[in-house]
Amino acid sequence: MDTIKELEFIDKIEDNFPFDDYIECVKLIDEAITISPNAVFSVVEEICKKASEKNISKAALINFLKQIDAKFNHPLRKLILETAQRIILREKISVDETIKNMEILKAYPMQYAALSILCFYTKDTNGSLKKCWNQITTEWNNGENLFDEDES
Questions:
Q1: Please, what sign has the CA dihedral across residues 104, 105, 106, 109?
Q2: pTM for the predicted model, two decimal places
Q3: How many Å apart are CA 124 and CA 122, to the nearest integer?
Q4: Phi-psi region of 151 (alpha: psi -120 to 50; beta: other; left: phi over 0)
Q5: How far apart are CA 102 and CA 93, in angstroms?
Q6: pLDDT tens digits, residue range 48-104?
């Protein structure tokens, strides 16, 4: 995997995915598939972000998920795409279910976009998701917490 290419791709699409241009969206999905699973999950994350806006239909967003589902093969595909569809449909996802899914995802290091999809769309009322996030990312980064904050 070319980490630089992945980071450049994610930077290119972050908050800038061209939802108004279907052909360009499909091209970006295809490009992501050639780069890495994290690049694909970054596209899914952009789709999830758009779900809260009124100017794009749920059907259009789900259609993009179907495009990914038809072309992308990865052990996390079903879990992440089903979660994304639930986000688009504004279905409630419990903290317990999210933690269970995060534990499944833990076995696939460096899939930060997938982890974000699972984590950031569930209301974390008691800090359980943040704790699980920190445990997983620290494990992925050989014991280093990259986002260690001074909480004093």
A1: positive
A2: 0.90
A3: 6
A4: alpha
A5: 13
A6: 999 988 888 999 999 999 999 999 999 999 999 999 999 999 999 999 999 999 999
